[in-house]
Protein backbone atom coordinates (compact mmCIF):
# COMPACT_ATOMS: atom_id res chain seq x y z
CA UNK A 1 0.00 0.00 0.00
CA UNK A 2 1.60 3.24 -1.05
CA UNK A 3 -1.08 5.57 0.25
CA UNK A 4 -3.20 5.26 3.34
CA UNK A 5 -6.63 6.82 3.70
CA UNK A 6 -8.91 6.75 6.70
CA UNK A 7 -12.65 7.18 6.62
CA UNK A 8 -14.76 8.83 9.29
CA UNK A 9 -15.41 7.17 12.61
CA UNK A 10 -18.52 8.63 14.24
CA UNK A 11 -20.15 8.12 17.58
CA UNK A 12 -16.98 7.30 19.50
CA UNK A 13 -16.04 9.55 22.42
CA UNK A 14 -12.30 9.23 21.83
CA UNK A 15 -10.11 12.12 20.58
CA UNK A 16 -9.28 11.90 16.87
CA UNK A 17 -5.54 12.31 17.53
CA UNK A 18 -5.53 9.22 19.73
CA UNK A 19 -7.46 7.18 17.15
CA UNK A 20 -4.95 8.30 14.51
CA UNK A 21 -1.97 6.98 16.49
CA UNK A 22 -3.70 3.77 17.57
CA UNK A 23 -4.51 2.96 13.93
CA UNK A 24 -1.08 4.09 12.74
CA UNK A 25 0.66 1.82 15.25
CA UNK A 26 -1.60 -1.09 14.34
CA UNK A 27 -1.33 -0.65 10.57
CA UNK A 28 0.05 -4.15 10.01
CA UNK A 29 -2.97 -5.65 11.75
CA UNK A 30 -5.29 -3.53 9.62
CA UNK A 31 -3.49 -4.48 6.40
CA UNK A 32 -3.85 -8.18 7.26
CA UNK A 33 -7.63 -7.69 7.40
CA UNK A 34 -7.82 -5.59 4.22
CA UNK A 35 -9.76 -6.92 1.27
CA UNK A 36 -10.99 -5.73 -2.11
CA UNK A 37 -9.97 -6.05 -5.73
CA UNK A 38 -9.66 -2.45 -6.92
CA UNK A 39 -8.91 -0.79 -3.58
CA UNK A 40 -7.85 -2.59 -0.45
CA UNK A 41 -10.01 -1.57 2.46
CA UNK A 42 -10.83 -2.57 5.99
CA UNK A 43 -14.46 -2.85 6.97
CA UNK A 44 -15.96 -0.73 9.71
CA UNK A 45 -16.66 -3.92 11.67
CA UNK A 46 -12.96 -4.88 11.53
CA UNK A 47 -11.91 -1.49 12.90
CA UNK A 48 -14.62 -1.41 15.55
CA UNK A 49 -13.79 -4.96 16.68
CA UNK A 50 -10.06 -4.32 17.16
CA UNK A 51 -8.93 -4.86 20.75
CA UNK A 52 -7.24 -1.64 21.84
CA UNK A 53 -5.96 -0.36 25.14
CA UNK A 54 -7.58 3.01 25.80
CA UNK A 55 -6.44 4.71 29.05
CA UNK A 56 -9.42 7.04 29.44
CA UNK A 57 -7.86 9.33 32.09
CA UNK A 58 -4.89 10.36 29.95
CA UNK A 59 -6.43 9.95 26.51
CA UNK A 60 -6.62 13.61 25.49
CA UNK A 61 -3.18 14.41 26.90
CA UNK A 62 -1.56 11.46 25.10
CA UNK A 63 -3.27 12.29 21.80
CA UNK A 64 -2.29 15.97 21.99
CA UNK A 65 1.31 15.14 22.87
CA UNK A 66 1.69 12.64 20.04
CA UNK A 67 0.00 15.01 17.60
CA UNK A 68 2.46 17.79 18.49
CA UNK A 69 5.40 15.45 17.89
CA UNK A 70 3.94 14.32 14.56
CA UNK A 71 3.41 17.96 13.53
CA UNK A 72 7.00 18.88 14.43
CA UNK A 73 8.35 15.92 12.46
CA UNK A 74 6.32 17.03 9.44
CA UNK A 75 7.61 20.62 9.76
CA UNK A 76 11.22 19.39 10.08
CA UNK A 77 10.80 17.24 6.97
CA UNK A 78 9.56 20.29 5.05
CA UNK A 79 12.53 22.34 6.31
CA UNK A 80 14.95 19.59 5.26
CA UNK A 81 13.37 19.40 1.80
CA UNK A 82 13.67 23.18 1.45
CA UNK A 83 17.33 23.17 2.53
CA UNK A 84 18.09 20.38 0.07
CA UNK A 85 16.51 22.40 -2.75
CA UNK A 86 18.51 25.48 -1.75
CA UNK A 87 21.75 23.49 -1.68
CA UNK A 88 21.00 22.01 -5.09
CA UNK A 89 20.26 25.48 -6.52
CA UNK A 90 23.49 26.94 -5.09
CA UNK A 91 25.51 23.99 -6.39
CA UNK A 92 23.97 24.26 -9.87
CA UNK A 93 24.55 28.03 -9.89
CA UNK A 94 28.19 27.70 -8.86
CA UNK A 95 28.87 24.93 -11.39
CA UNK A 96 27.24 27.00 -14.15
CA UNK A 97 29.79 29.76 -13.43
CA UNK A 98 32.55 27.40 -14.59
CA UNK A 99 31.25 27.60 -18.20
CA UNK A 100 32.65 24.18 -19.10
CA UNK A 101 36.23 25.12 -18.14
CA UNK A 102 38.63 22.60 -16.66
CA UNK A 103 39.50 23.52 -13.09
CA UNK A 104 41.63 22.09 -10.32
CA UNK A 105 39.84 19.91 -7.80
CA UNK A 106 40.73 22.38 -5.03
CA UNK A 107 38.76 25.05 -6.92
CA UNK A 108 35.73 22.79 -7.11
CA UNK A 109 35.99 21.98 -3.41
CA UNK A 110 35.92 25.70 -2.71
CA UNK A 111 32.81 26.08 -4.83
CA UNK A 112 31.06 23.22 -3.02
CA UNK A 113 31.72 24.19 0.57
CA UNK A 114 33.61 27.47 0.69
CA UNK A 115 36.89 25.95 1.90
CA UNK A 116 40.14 25.17 0.11
CA UNK A 117 41.59 21.70 0.55
CA UNK A 118 45.13 20.68 -0.36
CA UNK A 119 44.78 17.51 -2.41
CA UNK A 120 48.54 16.84 -2.46
CA UNK A 121 51.20 18.17 -0.14
CA UNK A 122 53.40 20.72 -1.88
CA UNK A 123 56.86 19.44 -2.71
Keywords:
123 residues, mainly alpha, 55% helix, disordered C terminus, Restrct_endonuc_typeI_TRD, Type I restriction modification DNA specificity domain protein, restriction system, DNA-binding, DNA binding
Protein model, in words:
By secondary structure, the protein is mainly α. It has one domain (6-98). The chain is 55% helix and 0% strand. It has helices spanning 16-25, 27-32, 44-48, 59-96, 105-113. The protein is elongated, with a radius of gyration of 26 Å. The N and C termini lie far apart (60 Å). The model is unreliable at 119-123 (pLDDT under 50).
Could you write a compact summary of the structure shown?
By secondary structure, the chain is mainly alpha-helical.
The dominant shape is elongated
Helical stretch tally: 5
- Largest sheet report: none
Q: Give the amount of beta strand, in percent.
A: under 5%
Write the layout of secondary structure elements.
Elements: H1 16-25, H2 27-32, H3 44-48, H4 59-96, H5 105-113
Helix pairs in contact: 1-4
